[in-house]
Amino acid sequence: MEQSYSTSFTVNQPADEVFQAINNVRSWWSHDIEGDTAQPGAIFRYRFKDIHRCTMRITEFLPNEKVVWHVMDNFFSFTEDKSEWKDTTIVFEISRKDGQTEVRFTHVGLVSEFECYTACQQGWNQYINGSLQQLIATGQGQPNVGEAITESEQALG
């Protein structure tokens, strides 16, 4: 069975604040995003130098509960299959757990067989468990502003 990448964390903030932070993608993932990241059906583009580009469509948008992005197109400069993320799905699920708000992030289709898996796992750990969690908890994330943040980005950049 295919195992997709998944991680979760809990915060003290209510679900509506968590939902707003998730959709404020420029404040936790990257400043280099074009398009609307907070409307159902919207399409946005992410870019990191000439190393990674992708196009996302917001396919589910349930306030304070769930956000789903479908990867419409993808390019990696560092993999043999340049489009490894294409047709994968990125899911943010928000729920209450023991008096806190839990965020469960799953990149459905990002599997260990992918050449990008180690770099992508490291990246998502940084941007989800680090930057997004910080944005929710403190109001200040650590998005990519054009410079490499993770070891993988540094090695590729």
UniProtKB/TrEMBL annotation:
InterPro entries: ASHA1/2-like_C, START-like_dom_sf. Pfam families: AHSA1 (PF08327). Residues 14-136 form the Activator of Hsp90 ATPase homologue 1/2-like C-terminal domain. Coiled coil: none annotated. Belongs to the AHA1 family. This is SRPBCC domain-containing protein.
